[in-house]
Design brief:
The complex is a heterodimer of chains A (131) and B (132). Chain A has 131 residues and is α/β, with parallel strands linked by helices. Chain A contains 3 helices and 7 strands. In chain B, α2 packs parallel to α4. The termini of chain B are far apart. Classes of the chains: A alpha/beta (131), B alpha/beta (132).
């Protein structure tokens, strides 16, 4: 009489593994970000701006338009062109209500036009931000 | 003649493809995502086309209402005092501070605060922006 019976392979429970993996996925989906961040120079320690060789512009309250600060200045486009050709730094005097996005857009616009150095002067303050 | 219906085996769902897909998803999230640090308040940085990558640095938060915060320190004086007493910050060779500011925050006020920080701590200040 043959008493040996065939052994069944024990099946491995996968439910707990899937549970753990799902929890990990939920965790990573909640804490991860795919946004790409960059940086802009706001203040550099070594940067100094000479007042005599600087194109001084005032940003108007709309956050886009620029105006020459000195009486008898040429048009803004001419002043910016001068800054590009002679590689002069540009100082921009800000009104109080300008938002960061408007400031960043302005810096980018000037950079695209070829201005090498831009300083931002807060309302009622000294020369500050550089790019 | 009586024909018995063939006995149907119970259908077993195949779990292995599911596990494979879920594991691939997990690996993708782990490799591509960046774990976000908890923010003291909601900040929506301005958008820009700049290409300079974010570096490892101390990050301060600036809200649309003009509040500057680092960890649980609020206000420039407290932040300066906290960083000056932080040995890890003092040992850093290339000191810089990144400000994650809300796009609707006031630029002039941020510049004043940043100037104060830069003068007191002798650091470069950078502004974090979102890639467009």
């Amino acid at each position: 009489m043959n008493l040996q019976h065939q052994r069944r392979r024990p099946s491995v429970g996968l439910t707990s593994l899937i549970d753990v993996i799902f929890i990990l996925i939920v965790f990573f989906m909640l804490v991860s970000t795919f946004s790409q961040y960059r940086t802009l120079d706001l203040i550099s320690r070594g940067s100094t701006v000479s007042d005599q060789q600087t194109i001084r512009l005032r940003l108007l309250a709309d956050g886009r338009s620029l105006m020459g600060l000195n009486a008898g200045d040429h048009s803004t486009d001419h002043l910016i062109q001068q800054a590009v050709v002679k590689r002069l730094p540009v100082s921009i005097f800000l009104p109080g209500e300008v938002t960061l996005q408007q400031g960043v857009d302005l810096l980018e616009r000037l950079k695209q036009q070829g201005v090498v150095s831009v300083s931002l002067v807060p309302s009622g303050g000294q020369t500050d931000a550089t790019q | 003649m009586q024909l018995n219906e063939p006995q149907q085996k119970p259908v077993r769902e195949l779990m292995l493809p599911l596990i494979n897909v879920v594991l691939l998803l997990l690996i993708f999230l782990m490799m591509m995502g960046r774990v976000t640090e908890p923010e003291p308040f909601r900040v929506n940085p301005p958008e820009s086309d700049t290409t300079e990558n974010t570096q490892q640095a101390i990050t301060l938060y600036y809200s649309a209402q003009g509040q500057l915060q680092y960890q649980h320190y609020i206000g420039t004086e407290m932040i300066i005092a906290a960083l000056l007493s932080d040995q890890g910050f003092a040992d850093e060779k290339t000191q810089k501070i990144i400000i994650r500011a809300d796009a609707q925050g006031e630029l002039s006020e941020l510049l004043r605060l940043a100037r104060q920080l830069s003068a007191s701590l002798a650091v470069d200040i950078k502004l974090e922006v979102k890639a467009r």
